[in-house]
Amino acid sequence: MRIEDIRATVKGRLGREILFYETVDSTNTIAADLAEKNPEGTVILADCQKKGRGRLGRHWLSPGGVNIYMSVILRPDVEPKDTTLVTLMAAVACTLALRRVTGILITIKWPNDLMASGKKIGGILTEMKTAGTRVISVVIGVGINVNGDRDSFPEEIRGIATSVKNETGKQASRETIIAEILNEINRLYPLIERTAGRDRLLSEWKNLTSTLGKQVIVITGQETLSGYAESIDDEGLLLLRLPSGELKSISSGDLTILR
Ligand code: BTN
Predict the structure, then answer these.
(1) Adjacency order of strands within the sheet including 134-144
(2) Distance CA 255, CA 259 (A)
(3) Do 49 and 117 have their domain in common?
(4) Same structural domain, 202 and 221
(5) Same structural domain, 168 and 237
(6) Can you say how many angstroms the Cα of residue 118 is from the centroid of all Cα atoms in its chain?
(7) Structural domains in the chain (count)
């Protein structure tokens, strides 16, 4: 990966410092270790991950040389409950950057799956350290399938996963996508600390999602719920209208769109 190309394109404070590794267990683990001593906006990139992590304790397939595995260290001045907004911010940043660079109509499936033609093209894993009501650091981990062929996915996920190359038939520059994501993060991150900014961020997320206005099933840690995905609230929780008429807010889970 040509880190110099990324450095030359990133404008702004976040993404100035980039640490690149050929192979790591997980960029999120490295970022978590550095989160208190390195400057805010430090980026950890790897070409390959041995123990890539996904949401809900899943494994994130991370073959070498083709995809994006990136973690960004942030220290937002917000309460722990507001870190969902940081994840939504990252999803907006990745979606806009990917749309611009690849032309693919990427949409966001709540809370932060990046989707193309109904399949997952990328995901975001946010991990934070807190002390009481204070957030010490937040690590945003971004995984995007870029130049892998359809055949590079194991059989069992071919029906649910895709890559940029799979969608467009062409290779894309990982460096350009990364730089554009970092430029978007520089633009969007300041919105999190102000109320008016949050409204703008939520409205950008709503413009890019394919989840709202659909019948969905959500599997949370405790239960499986089906209903109508009505909206998200000020903190980014999903507002699900149940068949009983009750409006339920959901903080995390695995969502399937029915229609
Ligand atoms: C998801 O389950 O959708 C989230 C996937 C997040 C994967 C990325 S790859 C870079 C960073 N390091 C990890 O171990 N996970 C995240």
Answers:
(1) 18-24, 43-49, 68-74, 134-144, 119-131, 113-116, 107-109
(2) 12
(3) yes
(4) no
(5) no
(6) 17
(7) 2
Cα 107 to ligand 1 centre (Å): 18
115 and 232 fall within a common domain: no
Tokens 């400057």 belong to 39
For 158-168, b where at least 16 C-beta lie within 10 A, e where not — what string?
A: eeebbbbbbbe
Q: In whole angstroms, what is the distance from residue 251 CA to residue 205 CA? A: 16
230: CATH:
2.30.30.100
Residue 163: its pLDDT value, please? 97
For the CA of 122, the closest atom of ligand 1 is: 3
Predicted model pTM: 0.95
Ligand 1 centre from 125 Cα, in Å? 5
What pLDDT shows up at residue 132? 86
Q: What is the pLDDT of residues 181-200, one digit of tens each?
A: 999 999 999 999 888 899 99
